[in-house]
Specification:
Two copies of one chain form a homodimer. By secondary structure, the first copy, chain A, is mainly alpha-helical. The first copy, chain A, has a domain at 39-137: Orthogonal Bundle (Arc Repressor Mutant, subunit A). Chain A contains eight helices and three strands, in the order H-H-H-H-E-H-H-E-E-H-H. Chain A has a three-stranded antiparallel sheet with strand order 1-3-2. Chain A starts with 13 loop residues before the first helix and ends in an 8-residue tail after the last helix. The interface between A and B is large, with 72 and 72 residues. Chain A binds a DNA duplex (23 and 23 nucleotides) through helix 6.
DNA sequence: TATTGTTATACTCTATAACTATA
DNA sequence: TATAGTTATAGAGTATAACAATA
């Protein structure tokens, strides 16, 4: 949140400048730029979600369940690309807070069908709204056409594959 | 590495299609697209770095040290935006493998100056080459002008701030 | 024999606190 | 009083193995 090093207008030591002194061997890497951008976007997202009372991962799960419900726990997990063992605690936490429910699947007695409660849907909608505003702030340096270009370029990079990238 | 779910040309159950069935409430989020793109880019990067014998994090450190050397451990850490406690093991591991050296700073007896050994520089150069080829493959869906557009757009998003984004 | 959900376990990465030696 | 390096520790996130119930 607070950078331990700030640029000063009067005194600049070698170490104080160093923060912005990244080598081209890093800034030329697309992955490095993506990492910097994602770090910020995620930090902004988690910050606004605090008021809503959920995490970014939990929003992802609520969004997927709202889209696919009723679906099995494992379908939601695979769609997000997260492990089914991780999903247990994630779904359990949301269920304990009354945001989703697990109901036995009559057609497959191994599976739980997960779906949002009314409160869960309200929380999801509030989070979506907050995150949209957050995206606007994050994309502030770009005008509308450039935002669309960025989205299109990223979309082409991730298209056609599966989300299971570890 | 291997997706647990594959699309079949003959039989498609609900669960098998679900993998690509992401809601717009997620795909509209820039952070989500960045996360998908970064996940792939990083997986590809770590894969090619296995042959070089270092991790992505270690490459970052080697690249920064090559750029700033000789610099203190903490300067390298801050430039990368990683904690100084994390840096201890990271630098220690690279030192143990003979890729960098720590020498006491005569001007500041608290500090270690870190710099690459000859072997460290060779490893860094080989990694940089492998990662450049990796970037080419990652950006394969885009032609040269589009790659430049993406780089420029990402650059504008991350410009002006510090890398300490958690 | 494979799948769903679950627990237990371990491993990495990260974050905090505290200590030392310097400044 | 603050900084550089270090250790210890605790917390997330993730991954593997194994189990029960079911298909």
């Amino acid at each position: 949140m607070v950078s331990p090093v700030r640029r000063l207008s009067v005194v600049l030591t070698v170490e104080e400048v160093a923060v912005t002194d990244l080598p081209e061997t890093l800034t030329d890497r697309t992955a490095f730029l993506l990492q910097l951008a994602l770090g910020r976007a995620q930090a902004m997202g988690e910050e606004v979600l605090v008021e809503v009372g959920i995490s970014g991962r939990e929003y992802g799960l609520l969004a997927v369940i709202a889209h696919l419900a009723p679906c099995s726990q494992i379908t939601a997990a695979r769609t997000l690309g997260i492990d089914r063992t991780t999903t247990v605690a994630l779904v359990g936490g949301l269920e304990a807070r009354g945001l989703l429910r697990r109901t036995p699947d009559p057609a497959n007695r191994r599976a739980n069908l997960v779906s949002l409660t009314d409160e869960g849907e309200q929380v999801r909608a509030r989070a979506a709204e907050a995150l949209a505003a957050c995206d606007d702030r994050f994309l502030d340096p770009l005008d509308a056409p450039d935002r669309e270009r960025l989205r299109a370029l990223l979309g082409r990079l991730v298209a056609g594959g599966d989300p299971h990238t570890g």
